[in-house]
Design brief:
single chain, alpha/beta, Rossmann fold, DNA polymerase, domain 1, six-stranded parallel β-sheet, 9 helices, 6 strands, globular, binds magnesium ion
Amino acid sequence: MKPGPVWLFDLDNTLHNASHAIFPSINRQMSAYIQRHLALDEAEAQALREHYWHRYGATMTGLVLHHGTDPAHFLHETHQLGDIGPLLKFERPIRRMLRRLPGRKVIFSNGPRDYALRVVAAMGLADAFDDVFAIEDMRYHPKPSMAAFRRLLAVLGVRPERCILVEDSAANLLPAKRLGMRTIWISRQVRRPPHVDLRLGSATGLGKATARALGPLAPR
Ligand SMILES: [Mg+2]
């Protein structure tokens, strides 16, 4: 096992700009799925999708809880993105930053595994990560549920004190902090919540600045 810190990277809107084209496509597919399976019109389906997103942090969770939807079927049907390359938007220096960063690097994404692997490959980062921990690995209990974090720690066999979570969602950083992880928020917002150790405008800024702000990155 690699020495040093264990970097946990959220994927969407942390390492690439999912809001540019990928999220709009997935959202359309999710609304269409809800329309088909729950026999709703377009506006009703969209409203329900947004309601579950706000309430549970994942549309899938609301559908599973209230409509008995099969999460694997739902995620497969709503992540049909074809050639992902033209939809991707990300900062190229992210590749160099990740290769230089010391320690173990893990993708920790609420997305399905197949989708996460395709994005990472299309970004040219297939060799940059040691593990990918996706929604299937969380048994479909997405971040910020504590279950997702405990499962990740058990599967990776690491203590939370060694982990640094890099995330665009401040809500997802809260359980990480409670467990004793260090937390880096990727955000353009100026106000930093108390459970955030460091805020960066872009993940490309990880590296020396991070080491200074978080202290030694050796195992604690
Ligand atoms: Mg994200």
